[in-house]
Amino acid sequence: MTNLEFLLSRFSCGSLKDPAPNNEELHQILSASMRAPDHGRLRPWRFVLVPKEYRQQWLDRVEHAMRQPEYDYPESYIQKVKHNFSCAPMVIALAMRQITEKTSVSIDEQLMAASAAVMNVLNAVHALKFGVKWVTGPIANQGVVESLGLQAPYRMMGFLFVGTPCGENEAPPRAMVDDYVAVWQGRPVQFKIDSEN
Length: 197
Ligand SMILES: Cc1cc2nc3c(=O)[nH]c(=O)nc-3n(C[C@H](O)[C@H](O)[C@H](O)COP(=O)(O)O)c2cc1C
Prior knowledge:
The structure is a single chain. The chain has about 200 residues and is α+β, with helices and mostly antiparallel strands. It has one domain (about 5-170): NADH Oxidase, CATH 3.40.109.10. About 40% of the residues lie in helices and about 15% in strands. It has 7 helices and 5 strands. Strands 1, 2, 3, 4 and 5 form a 5-stranded antiparallel beta sheet that branches. Helix 2 packs across helix 5. The two termini are about 35 Å apart. Flavin mononucleotide (FMN) binds near residues 135, 137 and 158.
């Protein structure tokens, strides 16, 4: 497989089993973040590992945070989160440090750099033939952020579930890239994907 074929074959994998990457593989995977494009070299991305032996202790705090009256999550959602997080072979919390001192780089740009860092991590997981899924949603709420011991200026960017893909490991069909590309020819551009409806 060429490098390009490798990139074109990446996909997310929600159904995972053991083994997860070992320490050396994890180190390689997270090192890929340090190759992300990064205005001002701020490196705003952060990773919090939640090892299996601490998973339940942390999940108790997550549950407590999710049960705070301001959230009102359905019981089924709380149970689903607990189940997904306790079954995942590896959980990596994604955080970003919002840097405002001594920089003119906007928080939007920092978020873009941090997102690019996560993308590199997803590709590195793929390169080592593991599976990964990036999730956010209500689970990234402030209470859950604090359950990890993080306060502002840190901000949650979600979680990665990492492990060995269960079953068939085949990329689903991809959208047609030409639908997302326009050529400017002196008039406002239009994208095929946005003009179909
Ligand atoms: C920032 C971000 C947050 C996401 N949050 C969720 C989520 O909470 N739940 C979910 O099912 N998918 C979520 N996804 C989508 C999956 O990670 C994945 O990209 C999607 O299932 C499409 O699969 P693909 O990457 O193979 O195209 C999120 C993706 C991104 C980039």
